[in-house]
Structure formats: C-alpha cells, structure tokens
Design goal:
The chain is α/β, with parallel strands linked by helices and 185 residues long. Helices cover 39% and strands 21% of the residues.
C-alpha cells in the first residue's frame, strides 16, 4: 500500500437515493465498505463527497442538460434526505463530508481547500457513477497534478459496458486502476 501520509480516500456520491438507482447496489455497498475498512485500518484520511442542492434546486441552470433532466423529479424531494449517505457507509468522527453542486467532486465544493490543508497529493477514488463523478473528478484532479488511483470494484455505473471501457481503457491514461484487494495489500 502507498504512503498514506499524503493520501486520501474519496467516497463519492454514496447517497441512499443514488445507490437505489443501481441494480447491483448491495454489491457496490459491500465493496465500498471494504475499501473504507482498509483505509481506516491504515489510518488513511477519508473524505466523503455528496451531491446536493438547496430545496427546489435553484443552483441548476436550464443550460445544464444532465441536472435539468432531474430537476423536476427532485424538486419535490427534501434535499436533507437526498444527501444522506447510505447507513452502511456512514462517516466516523473526523471524516468530513463535502457537498458539491455539480458532477465533479471539485465543482462547487471546498474539496480542494481541504486537500491542501491536509497536504494530500494522492487521491483514491470510489463512487457512483463511473461515467459521472469518477470520470469528472479524475479529469480535474489530473489537471491539478494529483496522483490518482481508482478502485474499479468500488465504482459502478448504470451501464456496465461504460464502466468497463472507462476502467480498462480511459482511466489508465491518468490514474492507476486496481481492485480494492490489490490496493489493500
């Protein structure tokens, strides 16, 4: 396992509402719980990232095709409920939660400030969805010169083929990609 002094595990979009959209949600929850356990055992910093908005989603522009499609469906949902992390994966004391306003973990959040304060140079990513938060965060983190590791079995996507292509062909261009078991050694 890598030097954990400057490494943080980012647990992204593990919200009950988001996980409920996956067919294999329990497998993802179990894998993510395993990664979190490994990080805690190694005393690695863990940062949770959730996507959230004010009630009614006033932050969503009509120009944003992805969020606009969801705005009507989520407009009546309590955002306090929407941002809740799955009970199996809850943060422990000292593990912070960052709220983002877009797909990327950096956008509309204070993640970068926290990473600087914690002197993090290497981020390890797990999250839903592979083609959403994981892809977007890799791209921005690479531009910000972070070392990046993606735990392929700690990520999931509604489209398994998209997940496979991203983790085997696209992500390796900017990140180390491995399984949770490989990473935990």
């Amino acid at each position: 396992m890598e030097n954990i002094q400057n490494t943080a595990l980012l647990v992204m979009d593990m919200q009950t509402a988001i996980l409920s959209t996956l067919q294999n949600a329990q497998a993802v929850i179990d894998s993510v719980a395993k990664a979190i356990a490994v990080a805690r055992e190694k005393k690695m910093r863990i940062i949770y990232v959730v996507v959230g908005f004010r009630n009614g989603m006033p932050e969503v522009s009509m120009n944003n095709k992805g969020f606009t499609a969801s705005k009507e469906r989520f407009a009546k949902i309590s955002m306090d409920e929407f941002v809740k992390i799955h009970p199996t994966l809850l943060p422990q004391e000292g593990e912070v939660i960052v709220t983002k306003r877009r797909v990327c973990a950096f956008t509309g959040s204070d993640l970068e400030v926290l990473l600087r304060v914690y002197q993090v140079q290497h981020i390890v990513l797990i999250g839903v969805s592979t083609s959403g938060v994981v892809l977007s965060t890799i791209r921005e983190a690479a531009d910000k010169d972070y070392r990046i590791t993606v735990l392929s079995d700690g990520c999931a996507d509604g489209d398994e083929e998209v997940h496979r292509v991203l983790t085997t062909k696209i992500f390796p261009r900017q990140a180390d990609v491995m399984t949770i078991e490989e990473w935990g050694k």
